[in-house]
Every structure is written in C-alpha cells, then in structure tokens.
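Bug #77: duplicate submission created two jobs. Keeping one. Sequence:
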Amino acid sequence: MKNTLNYKGFIASVSFIDEDNILFGKIEGINDLIMFEGKSVTEIKQMFREAVDEYIESCKHFNKPLLKSFKGSFNVRVKPDIHQQAAMLAKMQGISLNQLVQKAIEKEIQAA
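Kept job's structure:
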C-alpha cells in the first residue's frame, strides 16, 4: 500500500489516526512544516492540493525556494556482503562504487 500523494511535483506522506478517525498528511521535501487533514480519501486529496497551492503562493510572495536543497551526498548502509559484491562489480565495470550506486539510483528513478 502506498501512503503518498503527488501533486505539482510535491509529495505528501499520509497517515491514519484511528482514535480521531481522520487522515492527516505532511508535505515532504520542503523547508517548512505543512500539514493537512481530512475525513475521507477525497477530502485528504483536496486538502493536499490546497496546501500545495497555498505553499507555492507563499513561496512566491516571500521569494523562497519551493523545495529543500540537497547537497548530493548521503550515507548508504548495506550488509557487508552486498558492499563487497558492489565494490567488486564496480571494479569489474571500471567505475567507482559511487558511480555504481548513482547508476542504480538513476535506473530506479527512470523505472518509477
């Protein structure tokens, strides 16, 4: 089951609170905390779209970037045997381990 919504290039995570019988969401990948809620799937989708549209307008008004910036590096933790196999594969392909990981990520993004 996918617990995300997508609109205008923004992604939101969505959860259900059983005690309150509501869905709530949070826009991911931005520098601000934008949350929204609804009592049905239709309503949560509408509230997400409204939250995104309002956020875009706010960013324009305050001349802020829409999305969080990323520096292009991060740590990846894998099992030691996977690390070894990946390092050997990279060596056999004549590329660095970083290049192998980047190719794998690009392949996954293109397949999505």
